[in-house]
Amino acid sequence: MRWFHFGLMTVLALLTASAAQADGGPIGAPGAHHLAITLVAESVTPAAGSTVTVALATVPEAGWHGYWENPGDAGFPAKLEWSLPKGMTASEPVYPVPGRLVVADLMNYVFEKPYAPLVTLKVPAGLAAGTALPIKLHTTYLVCSATVCVPEAADLSLALTVGDGAIAPDTQARFDAWRRAVPKPLDAKGVFQASDGRIRIAIPYPAGAALKDAYFYPVTTGLLDYNAPQTVTQDGDRLIVETKAGATGGAGPLVGVLQIGAQQGLRVTADAGSVAATAATSTAPAGGVLLATLIAFAGAMLGGLILNIMPCVFPILSLKALSLARGHLDEGAARREALAYTGGVVAVCVGLGAAILALRAGGTAVGWAFQLQDPRAIVVLLLLTVALSLNLGGLFEIPTPQFVNRSGGAGGAFATGALAAFIATPCTGPFMGAALGAALVLPWPAALAVFAGLGLGLAIPFLALGFVPALRKRLPKPGAWMETFRHILSVPMWLTALALAWVLGRQAGVNGLTLGLGAALFAGFALWIGGRRQARGLAFGWGALIALLIVTIGGAALVSRAPAQAAVAEAGSEPFTEARLDALRKANRPVFVYFTADWCLTCKVNEKAAIETDATRKAFADHKVAVLLGDWTNGDATMGRFIEAHNRAGVPLYLYYAPGAAEPRVLPQVLTPGMLAAL
After folding, report:
1. Does residue 495 belong to any structural domain of this protein?
2. pLDDT on residue 434
3. Pairing mode, strands 254-261 and 51-60
4. Backbone angles phi and psi of 443, in degrees to 5
5. Same domain, 386 and 335
6. Confidence class of residue 327 from pLDDT cuts 50, 70 and 90?
7. Which domain-ending residue is among 160, 181, 202?
8. What is the pLDDT of residues 399-434, one digit of tens each?
9. Averaged over 555-582, what is the pLDDT?
10. Highest mean pLDDT, choosing among 27-31, 134-138, 284-288, 441-445
11. How many CB atoms lie within 10 A of CB 23?
12. How far is the C-alpha of 428 from the C-alpha of 6, rounded, in Å?
């Protein structure tokens, strides 16, 4: 029926045109136009070698409308035929955001009010001032009312002269208004997925940014059903547009305009890929947001609690716990230290969360531990862990504030908590990934509450020791063994430093690794000098502190990222790209996708224990499972958005696409070989 109506409208248009010609009047003759079009130049004296914008200022007659560049289910766009001086060229027109008009179940993208497509003319270089530039345009277009369509034509002209490019103030104001109505290009690309008769389009759009009357107008034809209802969902820093897929389909890319307000839009380009369905909406009821926040808060707190057993955090927690075992603190002092430690942990977690939200609002796809994608941050962390290792080994005592080895008051406890949280960032454990991923789709106050939950979970053991005297009584009695235990705790800290040095080498190459190790050597020398002074009963010394500061700043400033190299996949796997994933799924292959980073401890443990094993390789080979590896060590915006699409704030992320399944199965963040073989 829709195509019948379209055919009927076309016949009516042709009959109207024939009647006009039989009466002796040309189509679109002066006085008969239902669209009054005027050619307006921004400057009538454009400079040689410059560009000048020309507007087709169009005023529809009341009850009539013109068509957008994609007219929708019926109609056709205007055709422009320019006659220009030699060497002058004209761009394709850019249109303002259109409106929608449904007639007989046909969706039309139209303009019912005054509008102005803009065309850029390129003026040849080398023309003398005063050279005439006659501009002529022959345009044919369709104009319709609610009952009839009429093809019209118009011949327009402009007389320009090469000059200084001056623009009259009133003309500038008109063009400023016309440009505001033109959709702004969106630099970041979107992703679309068409399957099972539906199409989902993921468009980067900062959470919290103004959004009103959201609607997606496709420029590319065939991929969307124009008249089908659209649902627009806010999912973190992107919008998900879902509607019925077009009958003809297509591989893309998909180009269109996202309306974000009255006469405001963004021109979007989206490539084919995977877009996970989401139930989060920008208009979610308050109760739903509260429930989601509470669940994410609990998951983050549990994930933070598990982080305490990581090799970089456990030594710090152990020494703080043993400081309470010395027994000379009263109940009030123990609680103050516990609260100060918790405050330091929560402050760093909330600060990192706020930085993530701010960067994402600016359009950058980042997640938890985003700072580790920068080799300068790795250098700072490397020097910090080397210093802690030497401190635990007894080379020197950390000067005020006292971080680990003494109960030096609330200030030292706060600094200790901040240090523990900062060093814990390379780790992501069970429950934590899903919780932080959920935080990124919540309103920012709720998101910050989830990051605070992570800090609270990390601080729970020491908080419990400070507030529960019975737990402190169960700690071992102080003695000489504590010094030996302290030296033993330096081993996991040295392992952390070794892992960071390896990450630095991966990010910055051999030269960067050499620079980092050299900085660690000089830092160790400065710490040795300070330790020798302390052994003689003197203060650590400003000279040693200044030397440490110079080494740290200098090392971070001099290191740079090595040239990008293609990701090296494990034997039997391929580097991840959305195009390759889409191709494998279309071939009905089962696909296992895993996202990792060199600085992610959990990722590396899973790879050695579960993924890169003979049993897993054999299971995947026997069942022809394709394996795609996404390396997020150095950060990748496209990969980051794909990870976010599956409600994760970072790595690890493990996905299994069964043949024919519309959505992937998201696997736990702790894997076993049996779990993968069972797929």
Report:
1. yes
2. 61
3. unpaired
4. -55, 150
5. yes
6. low
7. 181
8. 754 444 444 567 778 888 888 888 776 666 566 666
9. 74
10. 134-138
11. 7
12. 57
Number of neighbours of residue 170 by Cβ within 10 angstroms: 7
**What DSSP character marks residue 47?**
P
Same domain, 375 and 463: yes
Distance in angstroms (rounded) separating the CA atoms of residues 8 and 75: 12
Provide the b/e sequence for 63-76 (b: ≥16 CB within 10 Å). ebbbbbbbbbbbbe
| CATH assignment at residue 85 | 2.60.40.1250
Which of the four pLDDT bands, split at 50, 70 and 90, describes residue 346? Answer: very high
Shared-domain flag, residues 333 and 406: yes
Beta bridge partners, 60, equal 35
Please check whether residue 403 is in contact with residue 421, taking contact to mean a CB–CB distance below 8 angstroms.
Answer: no
Is the model more confident about 99 or about 466? 99
Respond yes or no on whether the N-terminal peptide bond of residue 253 is cis (omega within 30° of 0): yes
Q: Are 611 and 594 in contact (CB under 8 A)?
A: yes
Examine the domain organization and report whether 153 and 292 are in the same domain.
no
> Closest Cα to residue 555, out of 387, 382, 386, 423?
382
One-letter amino acid for residue 284 of the chain: A
Within 10 angstroms of residue 547's Cβ, the number of other Cβ atoms is 18
- Which contiguous run of DSSP H or E holds residue 142? strand 132-144
Q: Going by C-beta distance under 8 Å and a sequence separation of 6 or more, which residues neighbour residue 332?
A: none
pLDDT, residue 417, reads 81
Domain span at residue 317 reads: 286-558
